[in-house]
Amino acid sequence: MRIELKDLEFRYQMNTPFERLALHDINLAINPGTYVAIIGHTGSGKSTLLQHLNGLVKPTKGSVVIGDRTIEAGRKEKHLKGIRKMVGIVFQFPEHQLFEETVEKDICFGPINFGVPEEEAKKKARIALKLVGLSEDILEKSPFDLSGGQMRRVAIAGVLAMEPEVIVLDEPTAGLDPRGRKEIMDMFYQLHKDQGITTILVTHSMEDAARYADEIVIMHQGSIFQKGTPFEIFSQPEQLIEKGLDVPETVRFQLKLQKELGVRFDHPCLSVEDLAGEVKRVMERGSR
Amino acid sequence: MLDKMIFGRFVPLDSPIHRMDPRSKLLLVFFFVCVVFLANNLVTYAILGVFTFILIALSRIPARFLFNGLKPILLLIVFTLLLHIFFTKEGAVLFDLGFVKIYEGGLLEGIYISMRFTFLILVTSLLTLTTSPISITDGMEQLLGPLKKWKMPVHELALMMSISLRFIPTLMEETEKIMKAQTARGVDFSSGPVKERVKSIVPLLVPLFVSSFKRAEDLAIAMEARGYRGSEGRTKYRQLSWQTLDTLLMCSLVVLTALLFLFRS
Amino acid sequence: MEEKLVSLKDVTFKYDGQDRNAVDGVSFDVSKGEWLAIVGHNGSGKSTLAKLLNGLQFPGFGSILIGDMELSEETVWDVRKKVGMVFQNPDNQFVGTTVQDDVAFGLENLGVQQQMMVKRVQDALNKVKMNEFLDQEPHHLSGGQKQRVAIAGVLALQPDIIILDEATSMLDPRGREEVLDTVRELKEEKILTVISITHDLEEAAKADRIIVLNQGRLYREGTPDEIFHLEDELVGLGLDIPFSVKLSKSLREKGVDLAGSHLTEEELVKDLCALNSRI
Ligand SMILES: Nc1ncnc2c1ncn2[C@@H]1O[C@H](COP(=O)(O)OP(=O)(O)OP(=O)(O)O)[C@@H](O)[C@H]1O
Ligand SMILES: Nc1ncnc2c1ncn2[C@@H]1O[C@H](COP(=O)(O)OP(=O)(O)OP(=O)(O)O)[C@@H](O)[C@H]1O
Ligand SMILES: [Mg+2]
Ligand SMILES: [Mg+2]
């Protein structure tokens, strides 16, 4: 399913003294099956942008095309449920949305709301639970008796069980330990690879953006500052640094080495392996 | 809609009324509520009116803003007026509409009561419009201070109130977030049959309750870590200062009361 | 020998109703003026340990010495004057309705005189560079700013030690830097001894010493150099290793002639430069 944002503008609390421009001049197309990372400073509008992707907020100007639906500014929209089923959002700290008595009921909540019969929803819950790496014996437990990391996984399973075609992730690993972080990021990537789920990730980690994404979108003060493949984006790291944004540690290291050693790298390295190989090559070339 | 409500909102301006001690303003409201009932004829109501308008003028709150804010309560005032007009049967008959007779006493009584009501609302709104919630809390704590002798938890109540004030915006944000998260999971908060909508409250309230509980727990730990152990031996950072203006205000209250006694029938 | 500020002996703690000790026989010392990082997987007992150090919980077994005071029900209020804490969630520790009220909160609790308070609030806010936000309400501040106010609240009490319990984990990279820079300055000026609980290995690499907790037990204690030498062992504990250590390892595996591991990028760059000029 293709998603497209056209000339989009969004203001919070329109027509009040508290009005606030959060997004403007947004043009963005997300093709089916891609993995897009959205990065940018706090307050740059990332979360607001995400909420347009399944009609949680409506643009105050411009339009959002989601599959065969168009949400346009100033028009009353009904029956957005269809869209919400296809575009699942994992919010920041998703464990805050848990509420049912048992893990199973909580995971089934989404699917049942979208009209899936109970028995089938339970089957989906089991599959989703396996995906997030939890065992079935917690199904009957209360979600509030779990550890923070487990709660996070249950909440994610609740979104996966809806079997969305597009999954939107707002900093899904904040507060987890390094292993938990890696496991969850790898899980989403695997899902994206295996089932071709379109994935949109908001993150502050340039390393994750570089490692997983096909395309990176950089937000700055409510509009899109740059977009391109990780390779393209990190080929010009100076632009990012100028805007006060981070670059992946590998790229940062390359810059330092270039300056100190007076050598040039042919391309930005996005993994430690690649960087080690390049450093070796560059140094050998330099010595000849 | 909500942003038109003036009740309980603070408009930070610079005016003599804004600068006054919250204690004197609280006392003013308290006494005003009492003396309003002394008025019982045209002159005394006029005196109250003049007093109220002087206060409004001093506060620099735009009159239009104030009266716009009264609109939601207008209905209540009109209703009181009508109630008296139709049900008080005193004095001469003014109009005879056939099915109902309107008496002079009823009309006057109705007008007086609704004026009384309006003055009360105006003066109390003026308190909240010109005093930040935290100052009101401080003022209350000081005024009620003597009650501590009778084991009234004055300090604790004031602290509770100031913490609630502090967390209202946080809770509103939280509510919005959870609503959005559940909407994304297929809950419909805004349309559908009433039964469904009532059911959709649960996925909102439970998380809200859980997170408020967690917040309260965190906050209690944070407070303890910073040495909080109740009101004992505690000093106050915010100092209230009673100025000439406040004394003047109290004097004006005495004058008002005297005038009301003098002219009431 | 450096002055010992904190000393734990065999500290053990179990939450009611749990069958495992959350903190299990932990002993270590903290010297005056050092920066100690505590790392460990989720649920390894880091926060519990922090709470024990501040008397928010009392050990079931073992003893905790803060300065020359043994931590107990009687000394806890004096201990809290010496040990300040900053917690993870910026919102849930902001008590006051405005920045200055919040910083003053701890001083009010101690019964400090009003004029003195005004001065100390000012000083503390100057140190964290938040002096321009005196009357700001918390919901108008960024996460990093709120955490700096929390640090000011601790500073105003003039403690010896500050414990940061994942104080930067809910912040964006910029906010994180703001907060860490602030703490670093305070440490440099010898105002505070820092105990920092963190999942951020880059931050831990800059500490003077690291303690690794695993399932409530002290797994290893040492300088960042020693700890990150463990490499894959750390990954097995659910942790990670800093980027420069990873890169240095990968380079060595590829046959680049580097000696030892590298904790910071600067060291690695320096060694590579040296290597380059040798060739
Ligand atoms: N409910 C709201 N009401 C009013 N303004 C808001 C609201 N939510 C966000 N904003 C404002 O809109 C802008 C964009 O916010 P948004 O949450 O989209 O940023 P973000 O890029 O997701 O930031 P972060 O990295 O901190 O999550 C900010 O200036 C913010 O203050
Ligand atoms: N209030 C509590 N009641 C019961 N058990 C608790 C409580 N707080 C923590 N625990 C348990 O104690 C153990 C240690 O928890 P602690 O919060 O100290 O871990 P942590 O290392 O700080 O983890 P994180 O990285 O997630 O913050 C965990 O197994 C946890 O489930
Ligand atoms: Mg966001
Ligand atoms: Mg913790």
Automatic annotation (TrEMBL), chain A:
The keyword rRNA-binding does not apply. InterPro entries: AAA+_ATPase (IPR003593), ABC_transporter-like_ATP-bd (IPR003439), ABC_transporter-like_CS (IPR017871), ABC_transpr_CbiO/EcfA_su (IPR015856), ECF_ABC_transporter_ATP-bd (IPR050095), EcfA2 (IPR030946), P-loop_NTPase (IPR027417). Pfam families: ABC_tran (PF00005). It is found in: Cell membrane. ATP-binding (A) component of a common energy-coupling factor (ECF) ABC-transporter complex. Its main location: membrane. The keyword Translocase applies. It comes from Peribacillus glennii. Keywords: ATP-binding, Cell membrane, Membrane, Nucleotide-binding, Translocase, Transport. It is an enzyme of class 7 (translocase). Residues 3-246 form the ABC transporter domain. It is a peripheral membrane protein. Coiled coil: none annotated. GO terms for cellular component: ATP-binding cassette (ABC) transporter complex. Its EC number is 7.-.-.-. This is Energy-coupling factor transporter ATP-binding protein EcfA2. Forms a stable energy-coupling factor (ECF) transporter complex composed of 2 membrane-embedded substrate-binding proteins (S component), 2 ATP-binding proteins (A component) and 2 transmembrane proteins (T component). Belongs to the ABC transporter superfamily. Energy-coupling factor EcfA family. One of its GO terms (molecular function) is ATP binding. CDD domains: ABC_cobalt_CbiO_domain1 (cd03225).
From TrEMBL, chain B:
Its main location: membrane. It is a multi-pass membrane protein. The keyword Mitochondrion does not apply. The keyword Transport applies. Keywords: Cell membrane, Membrane, Transmembrane, Transmembrane helix, Transport. The chain crosses the membrane at residues 26-59, 65-87, 117-134, 244-263. It is found in: Cell membrane. Pfam families: CbiQ. InterPro entries: ABC/ECF_trnsptr_transmembrane, EcfT. Transmembrane (T) component of an energy-coupling factor (ECF) ABC-transporter complex. Unlike classic ABC transporters this ECF transporter provides the energy necessary to transport a number of different substrates. This is Energy-coupling factor transporter transmembrane protein EcfT. It comes from Peribacillus glennii. The lineage of its organism: Bacteria, Bacillati, Bacillota, Bacilli, Bacillales.
UniProtKB/TrEMBL annotation, chain C:
Keywords: ATP-binding, Cell membrane, Membrane, Nucleotide-binding, Translocase, Transport. This is Energy-coupling factor ABC transporter ATP-binding protein. PROSITE patterns: ABC_TRANSPORTER_1, ABC_TRANSPORTER_2. The lineage of its organism: Bacteria, Bacillati, Bacillota, Bacilli, Bacillales. Belongs to the ABC transporter superfamily. SUPFAM superfamilies: P-loop containing nucleoside triphosphate hydrolases (SSF52540). It is a peripheral membrane protein. Residues 6-240 form the ABC transporter domain. It is found in: Cell membrane. It holds the Pfam family ABC_tran. InterPro entries: AAA+_ATPase, ABC_transporter-like_ATP-bd, ABC_transporter-like_CS, ABC_transpr_CbiO/EcfA_su, ECF_ABC_transporter_ATP-bd, EcfA_1, P-loop_NTPase. It comes from Peribacillus glennii. One of its GO terms (molecular function) is cobalt ion transmembrane transporter activity. One of its GO terms (cellular component) is ATP-binding cassette (ABC) transporter complex. CDD domains: ABC_cobalt_CbiO_domain1 (cd03225).
